[in-house]
Amino acid sequence: MLSACVLTTPQRPNPPAAPARATEQAGFDAFYVPEHTHIPVARNAAHPQTGDASLPDDRYLRTLDPWVALSMAAAVTERIELATAVALPVEHDPITLAKTIASLDHLSGGRVVLGAGFGWNTDELADHGVPPNKRRTVLREYLTAMRALWSQDEASHEGEYVRFGPSWAWPKPVRRSVPVLIGAAGTERTFRWITESADGWITTPGETDISDRLAQLHEIWRQAGRAGRPRVVALDYKPDAARLAEWDRAGVTDVVYGLPDKDEPAVLDYLARLSDKLARIGRPLGAVDRP
Predict the structure, then answer these.
(1) What average pLDDT does this structure show over 94-107?
(2) Dihedral, CA of residue 192, residue 196, residue 197 and residue 199, to nearest 10
(3) Is the overall model pTM greater than 0.90, yes or no?
């Protein structure tokens, strides 16, 4: 079964509250926001879509802090998940980030999903002291430390990048954990990382032919002894009945559509039309069981 979600870049026209409320009212399952703390003007890192240092548009310069944005979304909704696609945990102190995420999850009734990335913008990461060749290592350690703070009454961690002695940290997330999805290209290396350290995969823009990749992910997941199947979030641009049916058979659990960078009436109109189209081609919008 598929569920439909919405991704927004909250910036110029609209604060996140109105789109989030409209997303829930239109019957969608989740509200996603992205993250960049800043974009260095001089960069060597190539953007995945453009292939060079240029950016597709200026929205990368204008993203809100995702957790502040999602707190506004939480205040005006009751059901939808509050998610990131994707956040960059390694650009934060993991102890304070764990507190922020746990607080939002606690106050929203357990609705937070952490979609995390390794970070394509290595110049941005460098400003946070993250070596480009250690992005995955640092993220794994941060997640391990954050999960300890979320799950243990007295948490501690001793690693290369995070160290703290026995500590108390409340509130805890409602389930003493938060689902972690990794947004990265669908490669064997990524799938092995997800199987070891996360709960599912978020595709990258343009990855639509993913049935074979999902078969590989499921096999790696099974060989590792993980229960059930990973959650799989596919980024889509325009609903297509045949593609959605193929994704459903392959094991996609969620499909995410981006909101237009327009004023509030246009955003609300788009949501209504998207909801109607998905309903007409038979894709469910309501909540589904999560793996």
Answers:
(1) 98
(2) 80
(3) yes
